[in-house]
Amino acid sequence: MTSSPDLTGRVALVTGASRGIGYFVARQMAAAGAHVIAVARTVGGLEELDDEIKAEAARTGKGEATLVPLDLTDMAGIDRLGGAINERWQKLDILVANAGVLGVIAPIGHVEAKVFDKVMAVNVTGTWRLIRSVDPLLRRSDAGRAIVLSSGSAHSARAYWAPYAASKAAVEALARSWADETRNTPLRVNIVNPGVARTAMRALAMPGEDPETLPHPSEVAAEILPLASPTLTETGLIWNVELGRFTAWQKPA
Ligand code: NDP
């Protein structure tokens, strides 16, 4: 896609900002001028992000972060987040719903109920609840942008990936419904299939793989940033990082 957008003055909420893809999306959005609201459970990871953003801002004068340690299974906490953003900024320009968990790679009959429930709670219910919490704020922006992280597994229905694949198919359905609801507003809602990235989640999924052969999460983040551009027109589509183009919801040929 095009180069990094100018996000000066934009307020961006990024979940899963303590490591992996979300960490670099948050850093790069701040470097592009945004005030990033960084959400995750691991305070150390959020503080490291804040240090990096502050160091970059000292050089360039651009970017700032507000850290929000929050577990995305804490529904009341998610509900409060929208109100807190409203009090401080009265709007939200960008949502990156990136946080996710893999659960377990196992035959469907061997998946423990608590593991399945956790995957659905974080990847689906948490994302829906967050959308519900910030939808009015995104609609108030002159160029609201929502980016929802999915996975090729939502379409490929691979053996042993059932909980994660089901959660990603569900979250895509949520995002597409939301995109349709908001089609006639300035809000643009798109999905990202990031392909593969050298992260903790990928190492858990593919322990035998050499991480050095995989794209660094900062490279993947750079492919996601243009979806936050105020000039973006597309909505309800999947940005396929590996193909470098938008696709409709069907698996590309
Ligand atoms: P990581 O495991 O590296 O990072 C996941 C992030 O989600 C962390 O910041 C983690 O923060 C956060 N998170 C997990 N559980 C919760 C929770 N309960 N509450 C709040 N935050 C939570 O994953 P990736 O960076 O690899 O993945 C990012 C997204 O991209 C995910 O949605 C994933 O499904 C998707 N994806 C990744 C691929 C890859 O190859 N890496 C491929 C396809 C899709 P903390 O633990 O601090 O809470």
TrEMBL record:
Matching SUPFAM superfamilies: NAD(P)-binding Rossmann-fold domains
Q: In this protein, which residues make up the domain named Ketoreductase?
A: 10-210
Q: Name one GO cellular component term.
A: membrane
Q: Which PROSITE patterns match?
A: ADH_SHORT
TM region(s), chain numbering: none
Its domain of life?
Bacteria
Key words, A-Z: Oxidoreductase
The UniProt GO MF terms for this protein read:
oxidoreductase activity
Tell me which Gene3D superfamilies the record gives.
NAD(P)-binding Rossmann-like Domain
Does the keyword Oxidoreductase feature in the UniProt annotation? yes
PANTHER family in UniProt: DEHYDROGENASE/REDUCTASE SDR FAMILY MEMBER 7B, DEHYDROGENASE_REDUCTASE SDR FAMILY MEMBER 7B
Which family, according to the similarity comment?
A: Belongs to the short-chain dehydrogenases/reductases (SDR) family.
Q: What is this protein called?
A: SDR family NAD(P)-dependent oxidoreductase
